[in-house]
Amino acid sequence: MTTAQTPPVPGTGPLSGVRVVELAGIGPGPFAAMLLADLGADVVRVDRPGGAGLGLDPARDLTNRNKRSVVVDLKAPDGPARVLDLAERADILVEGYRPGVAERLGVGPGDCHARNPGLVYGRMTGWGQDGPFAHRAGHDIAYIALTGTLGMIGRPDEPPAVPANLLGDYAGGALYLVVGVLAALHHARATGTGQVVDAAIVDGTAHLSTMIHAMLAAGAWQDRRAANLLDGGCPYYGTYETADGRYMAVGALEEKFYDEFLRLLGLAPLASARTDVTRWGELRERIAAAFKTRTRAEWTAVFEDSDACVAPVLGLREAPHHPHLAARATFTDHDGTTQPAPAPRFSATPTAVRTGPARPGADGAAVARDWRIPPRPAHGPDAPATEDAVTDGG
What we know:
Blueprint: E1 2-3, E2 19-23, H1 28-38, E3 42-47, E4 67-71, H2 79-88, E5 92-95, H3 101-105, H4 109-115, E6 120-125, H5 140-146, H6 166-191, E7 195-200, H7 201-208, H8 210-217, E8 237-241, E9 247-251, H9 255-265, H10 280-291, H11 296-303, E10 310-312, H12 323-328, E11 331-334, E12 337-340, H13 364-370
Parallel strand pairs: 1-11, 2-3, 2-5, 3-4, 5-6, 6-7
Antiparallel strand pairs: 8-9, 9-10, 11-12
Helix pairs in contact: 1-6, 2-4, 5-6, 5-7, 6-7
């Protein structure tokens, strides 16, 4: 694990020089803006008086790292004008309101493009900007439920397993928003014309399952849980409990890796069961019984130098200390907080955690100076929060 003792020059990274306005919310929007900030963009988060409603101490909200913050009450008479001043000087704007809210507040795409025709206006929602559910509230679990992806995860005799909010909010939502706004930025710089990017979690999550749909159409995937090669149905692609109540993950799909796995597990005579689905139940029971004979640490040592594709299932506090992740500095310490380092890696424009989480309203004067925005009176961060709120991609 590395420790950031000497912060790098602000703005390093491939997006150095790109200006982003983030209208504060929760969930995928802030994560997308964090990723842009990690890549070097100058992200100014427009916080609402009273905060975004998560209840998390702003000093601990790592999705606001590498950003700066101003506080604007969009329902105040001068609120929309203050945001439009920022939008006029920005390359990208990111918002996560329900459809129509930004327009009612006076900071919708039409208002922003009137001031800055080249602006990329990124919209992060769960249901999208149109469709029967567009105006409904929602959270990650509902979005992934309708796309069919939640129904793929878990054991067949139990309810679908909830994958935190990683699959919908962040994979199907935030990452697709980032891809979208960067693609639109490329177009805007070539043509001078901005556009609206409609990033819906239902669209992105469905898109993530493209390969599964291909397999389903080809008859190579069953539309039920734990019945397929990659969903826990295959006995040599899954997790197994060890003697100390912990788990090992097995992904020995290819024959040579499978043979190595069985050899080290002491089950080499079962090699022929790999392609015989009728024997998968027997194979699973034998593998499970073998893993129960030793602890996780002991099995980790057995498989450590092999190509059997077996790894220990680590906890969040354990992961930063794994030798491989520590050697790669996959996690970093900044201001006493261990956190994932920016990803991916760049050879010519390296990224880093430059600053800790932005405190609401702390950077108003600096942003006004750097972005050459007319100074306006600041609104207190402890004023009552407005409604029309940003939902979790709702």
